[in-house]
Amino acid sequence: xxxxxxxxxxxxxxxxxxxxxxxxxxxxxxxxxxxxxxxxxxxxxxxxxxxxxxxxxxxxxxxxxxxxxxxxxxxxxxxxxxxxxxxxxxxxxxxxxxxxxxxxxxxxxxxxxxxxxxxxxxxxxxxxxxxxxxxxxxxxxxxxxxxxxxxxxxxxxxxxxxxxxxxxxxxxxxxxxxxxxxxxxxxxxx
Amino acid sequence: xxxxxxxxxxxxxxxxxxxxxxxxxxxxxxxxxxxxxxxxxxxxxxxxxxxxxxxxxxxxxxxxxxxxxxxxxxxxxxxxxxxxxxxxxxxxxxxxxxxxxxxxxxxxxxxxxxxxxxxxxxxxxxxxxxxxxxxxxxxxxxxxxxxxxxxxxxxxxxxxxxxxxxxxxxxxxxxxxxxxxxxxxx
Lengths: 190, 186
Hints:
The structure holds 2 protein chains of 2 kinds.
Chain A lengths: L4 H33 L20 E2 L9 E2 L8 E6 L4 H16 L4 E6 L3 H11 L5 E5 L3 H5 L7 E5 L5 E6 L5 H15 L1
Parallel strand pairs in A: 3-4, 4-5
Antiparallel strand pairs in A: 1-2, 3-6, 6-7
Chain B lengths: L1 H6 L6 H10 L4 H13 L15 H11 L18 H15 L4 H12 L14 H30 L6 H12 L9
Helix pairs in contact in B: 4-5, 5-6
């Protein structure tokens, strides 16, 4: 007594159908687990500007001997734009990394002092040193909003073509983040 | 360690708050209007009197837009609800754009260009979000179809049993004939 092959296949597919909820559950659970393990920071909003031309801006200088920053200063070479503020604690933590980058002189770093009091910002630079080739004063915070920043520090790598190539969200205070940023800068250089 | 640092990522400048308060100073009319609004509003909101537009129609449009814009600092609040400095800045931008003659969509697009779709509390309908919008109804319809098929089949089985196979018919015949051959010995 044998069962017809198509009947057997039908029974098998029905059995697989019973397994479907289990498979679906495992897929969803696996996705959630992976999301937990990915170490993604939910606070970090993906930048809408990556790949797009830098917004237009022209900011006056903070210091008498350091020029301000404008969109026109971005053309031709890869630059770093670092949004900072004197009231921002993580900016202070990040500052040694910026000083190190400046000493390395591999690319110009432009600073944008965001929603800050100029006096406090000048004291901040005087105390910690100046890693910036140019510093623009963005007291209204509008340039920061044009760049889509959600706080400080945020750092943008702008390519030779004036397009934003990468956005670093939050401070660079550990080696992993620094190495990752340097790798992205290298990619942006092409 | 990393989390601790991140908490300070959105340090708020004291300046913004001071400025807001200073501007709110003399305008008794605006304050009165705000009090009236507060009295009628059923939900708490953080729009400061100094931020409000004189034109009630424009202000109403600004409020409606603001309620759909996510505060990118607090993330689970609209900029209309949030007390964050950046939310106040975005509220001001919404009003500026409206005064400049932008349509509601133009105002939304202005913010989306800077902060991406994330800034909209209601995700827009586009191929990338089809799964999000159509997924739940699709799963519901699938489940409904599965239930219907299940009950139909079960009813079908009850009403029309499968005809006996040749083996079964033969066995039945022998049982009815009572020769006992197919029976197991007890």
